[in-house]
Design goal:
GO terms for molecular function: heme binding; iron ion binding; monooxygenase activity; oxidoreductase activity, acting on paired donors, with incorporation or reduction of molecular oxygen. Keywords: Heme, Iron, Membrane, Metal-binding, Monooxygenase, Oxidoreductase, Signal, Transmembrane, Transmembrane helix. Belongs to the cytochrome P450 family. By secondary structure, this protein is α+β, with helices and mostly antiparallel strands. Helices cover 43% and strands 9% of the residues. The protein is built from 26 helices and 16 strands. The strands form 5 sheets. A 6-stranded mixed sheet has the order 6-7-8-14-11-9, sandwiched between helices. β4 and β5 form a beta hairpin. α15 crosses α18. The protein is globular. The termini are far apart. The structure holds protoporphyrin IX containing FE (HEM). The site of protoporphyrin IX containing FE (HEM) has 23 residues, from α10, α18, α19 and α24.
Length: 717
């Protein structure tokens, strides 16, 4: 609290992880209100910021700080700007609302916050630096209205409110034991309620109800979308601030802060502009050396363990963790070769993030949950450990900052530390406050680790059980392109098209994450797409939306043999005029390392689409291509047991249930290339297409091709 008469003051802040105390002038970091302190005038209080000093309240005090960047604080401000509004019935209602949110009026008229049992129900949604830009965050009234509409829709009255008659799938059947149901519900586990991995359930309802339906749990409902035209509208066509991350932002904020993934539209705009240049082409090419080094460490490990059973999922997770640590903040986890408490903390935090993403009760917001709930106590300890490491790395980078323009940074050959952190810190004029950097780094650590590992895991899983000749096609390509070279470079990755298409086919069948989460910030009309609703579908403000990439990637309307792992499909075009407004998949639109959402007109979104598309797509593709090529150049794999033993479970990424347990044998340099029997080309020829997957343009071309194929055969014989 700052005395009324004072415009500025000094506060000592002990930021956890900083080695020495920092003295911060209020003018720089703290907003001081020289009227009655209506709310505590400190903006952007990070979750783990400890503030000490006489008279400064902390989180354990009976009176707590109100974070002025929250929606709640903005409401209070609106009423208090004009004291003449504070009378009459409206004011009584407002007071009741504040009391319910744990706010109390002091004798001097100031509102303060007391811990409340119901606090976990209060919106934690953040606004940008105290000013609301774009549509305001969805509030309690919106949610109440949506509940009412859901109930009326149950009764068949939805259309009377202008709602389209979207089918409703009600989750009501649970097939597990009663005990697991009770513990699951108490833990707020959506999967338990749903009776299995959520994306599988969404797939079942998609096949029953079509491309758009409501998924209801009591009065709460989600709009589930499995249509490329509607998905494109939400992700790309609508203004960038019309759809936000909604409940995902609430869930991830305690972990990623205001990092890019959960960021509200206004914060996102600023940070995205800062982060994107760091992924420049020269840096990506340099990262290839890192990918090779780490893939070699993994190869050495696999060679040492030749013939034994290895969990390849675990190995891929380790190698991608080591890569992301080095690439993002120049930290060597060394997890391929050792275990450590830090690595364990990373994995526990990841699991907690996943559990939160599939929960419908925000149990972590219960009063003092981090002091009495076992998992939450551990979570807090883990987060503190990771935050401390990040704080040290950030301090080290900031203390040796040398500001340069983006162009200068791109040209710089920073051999000792080519990390993203170094780039972001040295970027001229950029925000290098530790909270902003910490949030970005934590986000990239989480976003860039298990996603890539899952792509490697599931691609190997599918290739190892593919038709005879499929795996060999990819392996032969790698061996032919690399010849005697051990380390692929950028041009080699470009040349290994079959390998890249196999990896991307892995992401088609196992998209990471399998659903994208959004919330409508204003009312909207979705296009018809493959639905029967000619006038489109009305979406109310506040509607929570799941765009199911799993359903899109496996839809029989959008793919030929959708459930078959077939990397050759990316060379053939596919169209379906029944899906109104969908351009189909066109291989001629593929540019760059993989067929993107544009080539498939949003039927395929391996890295999302529109403004919130993944910033690490090129990084991930190069990382996966280098790692996979080095591994399959040197090893053959066989399942230990059968592919069915592997199983599947969900989270933010799709994991195996029992690990990808395989035996590997070393490929010797002078082993002859295995026979493929022309498996790749045959996939096109058997569909009456030419050997590169294109349709013949004329009869003459068909005859000519047949003739050359026959002469080729004769020559071979
Ligand atoms: C195979 C690997 C990867 C997959 C499948 C993947 C997938 C995705 C998807 C689908 C999104 C969009 C989420 C949404 O719209 O809600 C996304 C966003 C994001 N990804 Fe990735 N990702 C991968 C690797 C990486 C890597 C390596 C990094 C960083 C080094 C990264 C950083 C991010 C960030 C920061 C965002 C948020 C972008 C924004 O909102 O502006 N990802 N990713």
């Amino acid at each position: 609290f700052v005395p009324k008469s004072q415009n500025s003051a000094s506060i000592r802040l002990h930021v956890s992880g900083l080695e020495k105390e920092q003295k911060i002038e209020t003018e720089d970091d703290v907003t001081v209100v020289d009227e009655i302190p209506l709310y505590v005038p400190i903006v952007n209080i990070p979750n783990r910021l400890k503030i000490s000093g006489k008279g400064v309240p902390n989180r354990k005090d009976k009176v707590q700080l109100i974070d002025t960047t929250t929606y709640e604080a903005s409401l209070i401000k609106n009423w208090d700007i004009d004291p003449s509004r504070q009378k009459g019935f409206d004011w009584e209602i407002e007071k009741a609302r504040r009391y319910a949110a744990g706010l109390r009026m002091r004798e001097d008229g100031a509102w303060v916050k007391k811990p409340s049992l119901f606090e976990f129900l209060v919106s934690k949604h953040r606004i940008n630096n105290g000013s609301i830009t774009g549509p305001s965050p969805v509030n309690v009234m919106d949610v109440a209205f949506l509940f009412a509409v859901t109930i009326l829709s149950y009764l068949g009255l939805g259309p009377a409110f202008g709602m389209a008659a979207v089918p409703t799938a009600v989750i009501q059947k649970y097939e597990g034991s009663m005990l697991s149901f009770i513990t699951g519900v108490l833990g707020g586990d959506l999967q338990t309620m749903a009776g299995g991995p959520l994306f599988l359930l969404l797939n079942k309802y998609f096949l029953e109800n079509g491309p758009i339906f409501n998924l209801s749990f009591g009065p709460k409902s989600f709009l589930v979308i499995s249509d490329p035209v509607m998905a494109k509208h939400i992700l790309r066509t609508a203004p960038a601030d019309q759809y936000c991350k909604g409940m995902l932002a609430d869930i991830l904020e305690p972990i990623m802060g205001k990092g890019l993934i959960p960021a509200d539209p206004a914060t996102w705009k600023v940070r995205r502009r800062a982060v994107v240049p760091a992924f420049h082409k020269r840096w990506l090419k340099r990262m290839i050396t890192l990918f090779n080094e780490r893939a070699e460490i993994l190869c050495d490990d696999l060679t040492r363990k030749e013939g034994t059973v290895i969990d390849m999922e675990e190995r891929f997770c380790s190698v991608t963790l080591d890569i992301i640590g080095k690439a993002v903040f120049d930290y060597d986890f060394g997890s391929v070769t050792k275990e450590s408490p830090i690595i364990k903390a990373v994995y526990r935090v990841l699991r907690e993030a996943e559990h939160r993403s599939s929960s419908f009760i925000p149990y972590w917001n219960l009063p003092y949950a981090d002091q009495w709930m076992g998992g939450q106590v551990e979570f807090r300890t883990d987060m503190t450990m990771l935050d401390d490491i990040l704080a040290k790395l950030i301090n080290r980078a900031v203390s040796t900052r040398s500001e340069l323009t983006v162009e200068e940074l791109e040209d710089r050959d920073n051999a000792e530390d080519p990390s993203l952190l170094r780039f972001l810190v040295d970027m001229r004029g950029e925000d290098v406050s530790s909270t902003v950097l910490r949030d970005d780094l934590m986000t990239m650590l989480i976003a860039g680790h298990e996603t890539t590992a899952a792509m490697l895991t599931w691609t190997l899983f599918e290739l190892a059980q593919g038709e005879p000749g499929m795996f060999e096609e990819i392996q032969n390509e790698v061996r032919t392109v690399l010849k005697d070279k051990d380390r692929p470079d950028y041009d080699d990755v470009v040349a290994m098209k079959k390998l890249r298409y196999a990896l991307i086919e892995g992401l088609r069948l196992y998209p990471e994450p399998p659903v994208l989460i959004r919330r409508a910030r204003t009312e909207d009309i979705l296009p018809q797409g493959s639905s029967v609703m000619k006038d489109g579908i009305k979406v109310l403000r506040g509607t929570d939306i799941f765009v199911s990439t799993w359903n899109l990637h496996r839809s029989p309307e959008l793919w030929e043999n959708p459930l078959t792992f077939d990397p050759t499909r990316w060379e053939r075009s596919f169209k379906n005029p029944n899906v109104k407004g969908w351009a189909g998949y066109d291989p001629d639109k593929v540019s760059g390392l993989y067929p993107s959402e544009n080539a498939a007109d949003f039927a395929f979104m391996p890295f999302g689409g529109g403004s919130r598309k993944c910033v690490g797509d090129q990084f991930a593709m190069l990382e996966a291509a280098v790692t996979f090529s080095v591994i399959i150049k040197n090893f053959n794999f066989e399942f230990e047991g059968s592919p069915e033993d592997v199983g599947m479970q969900t989270g933010a990424t799709i994991h195996t249930m029992n690990g990808l347990r395989m035996r590997q044998t070393r490929v010797k340099k002078d082993d002859p290339l295995p026979s493929t029997d022309g498996w790749w080309e045959k996939q096109h020829l058997k569909r009456g297409l030419s050997s590169n997957g294109r349709a013949y343009q004329s009869k003459e071309e068909v005859e000519h091709t047949k003739f050359t194929e026959i002469t080729d055969l004769l020559t071979l014989e």
